[in-house]
Amino acid sequence: MPDACIAVIPARGGSKRVPGKNIKPLMGKPLIAYTVEAAADSGLFERIVVSTDCQEIAEVAQRHGAEVPFLREASLADDITPVSAATVDMLVKLDPDGSTYGFVCQMMPNCPLKTSADVRDSHRQFLESGADSQLSVVRYGWQNPWWAMRRDDSFRLDPLFREAMTQRSQDLPELFCPTGAIWWAKADVLRREGTYHIPAKTGWEIPWQRGLDIDTYDDWDMAEILFRLDSAGRR
Questions:
Q1: Residue 102: how many CB atoms within 10 A of its CB?
Q2: Which pTM does this prediction carry?
Q3: Strand ranges (E), 65-188
Q4: With b meaning 16 or more CB within 10 Å and e meaning fewer, what string describes 55-69?
Q5: Among 39, 60, 87, 184, which is least packed, fewest CB within 10 Å?
Q6: b/e string for 197-228 if b means 16 or more Cβ within 10 A?
Q7: Over the stretch 144-168, which tens digit does the pLDDT of each residue have?
Q8: Which helix (H) or strand (E) holds 30?
């Protein structure tokens, strides 16, 4: 298997909750630029490519150092197609016979606080573990997922984990939530499975601040706060 790594940054143009999110300026820089720069500064990748269906996103990504070899097909840019399908599409088109890239890193642009050091650290764990795929994950904090409840139309609460409701939080196992910051896979496995979500996947933990996914305006506000704290040396 070849050793070369390729970074794929999926960035479709149809964001609804934060329109134009991927190129919207965050602290004076287009959102997607943070991910392109983290990938470039890591020094790991033979190529850094953006998968997008939007010409404007393509132009912004190229100005900040990424490649956009082609625009994504409309069938891969709707609200229901898994993001990994766009990554697989890019991989297959750029390396048809699988002879060039051994590893594929998918990095979502709506996770702008990840750093080049995070990319290198996640890559190191991925190689050392020998896993076929690895997701970045964040540890749950003050909201204890073991105490999660459903609420019906009459406001009645139904615990998801009834036995955990009577246990102290410190006695319950740690749980982790995936974040789209940095996902790795062996290229041949991703081709075969079509997804990073395989049974034997492992998790690399990133601090929640750097794993923040921006999906709403509230998330956007949080990202700005975290960037300001980081600039002030308070994080």
A1: 16
A2: 0.95
A3: 103-106, 133-139, 149-151, 157-159, 176-186
A4: eebbebbeebebbbe
A5: 60
A6: eeeebebbbbebbbbbbbeeeebbeebeebbe
A7: 999 999 999 999 999 999 999 999 9
A8: strand 29-30
Rounded distance between C-alpha atoms, residue 103 and residue 92, angstroms: 13
Phi, psi at 101, each rounded to 5°: -115, 130
Question: Can you tell me the mean pLDDT for 208-216?
Answer: 96
Please report, in angstroms and rounded to a whole number, the separation of the first and last CA atoms in the chain.
Answer: 40
Q: Distance between CA atoms of 39 and 117, rounded to whole angstroms? A: 10
Provide the token pair at 224: 């700005």
Q: Strands 103-106, 5-10: parallel, antiparallel or unpaired by DSSP? A: parallel
- Cα 80 from Cα 145, distance rounded (Å): 26
The structure tokens listed for 140 are 């749950």
